[in-house]
Amino acid sequence: MRLFIDSSNVSQIKSLNEYFPIDGVTTNPSIIVKEQKPFLPLLKEIRNVIGEDKLLFVQTLSTRAEDIIEEARYIHDTLRGNLVVKIPVTKEGIKAIKTLSQENIHTLATTVYTPMNAYVAAKAGANYVAPYVNRIDNLTGDGIRVVYEIMAIFQKFNFSCEVLAASFKNVQQIKEVSLTGAHGVTVSPDLIEAFLSNPPIKENVEQFRNEWIQLYGEENATLLEGKRKDD
Question: Annotated catalytic residue: which of 14, 54, 86, 156?
Answer without folding.
Answer: 86
